[in-house]
């Protein structure tokens, strides 16, 4: 059955010309069964421009949300799914039939589904590098997988350690290291989180939410020490397909 509805979707973010989502959904909509659907970037300098965006685009049916608005967009929404409320971050917005905006989180789903095949019994604890919206979805997924975790940031706070505390003992205790920061994203591909990479081993998983480049410096450094590595591409595919199902249910 051919979908002849003219429906508009898009990505909300800042400095998002690199967007995975636009390319992915544009290619998807080129398929004849999705005739009439379109996807575009909505690059805004400040979240307070969101209301104007909605006013100027009354025919939108759904949005993805990326850095830096996954948390900032929440006050503008009418409702959150139970999981989005628990996570405290939104990366998918559905425009309901009665004109309301409902926020969902599909990041946790994409991350969980992409990490699960890599897990072995000795993978008990994870370090989450970064404390932004993406890290919250990752933490929720780890909770569901029964994996304990600790957040890492440039400044130590309650329940958060700083990079200076990471040493050989840390790597003995934490077998999964997840980069949820933008450090290493194209074009700054030589950058990487400040870690003692010599302590990675074949028993570690290094997971980077970044997908461009496909192998970040963080992943290269971990790979040299024998770690299993994974970038964020599969996570993006899984979360995008989950968003598509949400928009169409």
UniProtKB/TrEMBL annotation:
Entry's Gene Ontology cellular component terms: cytosol
Q: Where is the Shikimate dehydrogenase substrate binding N-terminal domain?
A: 11-93
Biological process GO annotation list?
aromatic amino acid family biosynthetic process; chorismate biosynthetic process; shikimate metabolic process
Any coiled-coil regions, as ranges: none
- Quick one: signal sequence residues? none
One molecular function GO term is:
shikimate 3-dehydrogenase (NADP+) activity
Q: Which UniProt keywords apply?
A: Amino-acid biosynthesis, Aromatic amino acid biosynthesis, Oxidoreductase
Ubl conjugation in keyword set: no
This protein's source sits in the domain of life called: Bacteria
The answer, when asked if Protease is one of the entry's keywords, is no
Specify the pathway: Metabolic intermediate biosynthesis; chorismate biosynthesis; chorismate from D-erythrose 4-phosphate and phosphoenolpyruvate: step 4/7
Gene3D superfamilies found in the cross-reference section:
Leucine Dehydrogenase, chain A, domain 1, NAD(P)-binding Rossmann-like Domain
What InterPro entries does the record tag this protein with?
Aminoacid_DH-like_N_sf, NAD(P)-bd_dom_sf, Shikimate_DH-bd_N, Shikimate_DH_fam
Q: Which PANTHER family match?
A: BIFUNCTIONAL 3-DEHYDROQUINATE DEHYDRATASE_SHIKIMATE DEHYDROGENASE, CHLOROPLASTIC (PTHR21089:SF1), SHIKIMATE DEHYDROGENASE (PTHR21089)
Q: What is this protein called?
A: Shikimate dehydrogenase
Q: Species name for this entry?
A: Flavobacterium panici
């Amino acid at each position: 059955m051919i979908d002849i509805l003219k429906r508009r979707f898009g990505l909300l973010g800042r400095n998002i010309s690199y967007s995975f989502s636009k390319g992915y959904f544009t290619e998807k909509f080129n398929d004849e069964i999705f005739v009439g659907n379109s996807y575009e970037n909505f690059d805004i300098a400040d979240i307070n421009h969101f209301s104007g965006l909605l006013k100027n685009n009354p025919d939108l049916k759904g949005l993805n949300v990326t850095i830096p608005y996954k948390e900032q967009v929440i006050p503008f929404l009418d409702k959150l799914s139970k999981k989005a409320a628990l996570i405290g971050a939104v990366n998918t917005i559905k425009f309901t039939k009665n004109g309301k905006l409902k926020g969902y989180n599909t990041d946790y789903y994409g991350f969980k589904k992409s990490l699960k095949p890599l897990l072995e019994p000795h993978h008990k604890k994870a370090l989450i590098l970064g404390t932004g919206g993406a890290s919250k979805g990752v933490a929720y997924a780890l909770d569901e997988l029964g994996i304990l975790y600790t957040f890492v940031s440039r400044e130590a706070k309650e329940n958060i350690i700083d990079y200076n505390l990471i040493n050989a003992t840390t790597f003995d205790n934490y077998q999964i290291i997840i980069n949820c920061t933008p450090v290493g994203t194209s074009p700054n591909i030589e950058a990487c989180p400040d870690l003692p990479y010599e302590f990675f081993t074949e028993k570690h998983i290094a997971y980077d939410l970044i997908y461009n480049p496909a192998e970040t410096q963080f992943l290269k450094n971990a790979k040299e020490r024998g770690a299993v590595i994974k970038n964020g591409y599969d996570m993006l595919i899984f979360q995008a397909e989950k968003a598509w199902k949400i928009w169409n249910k």
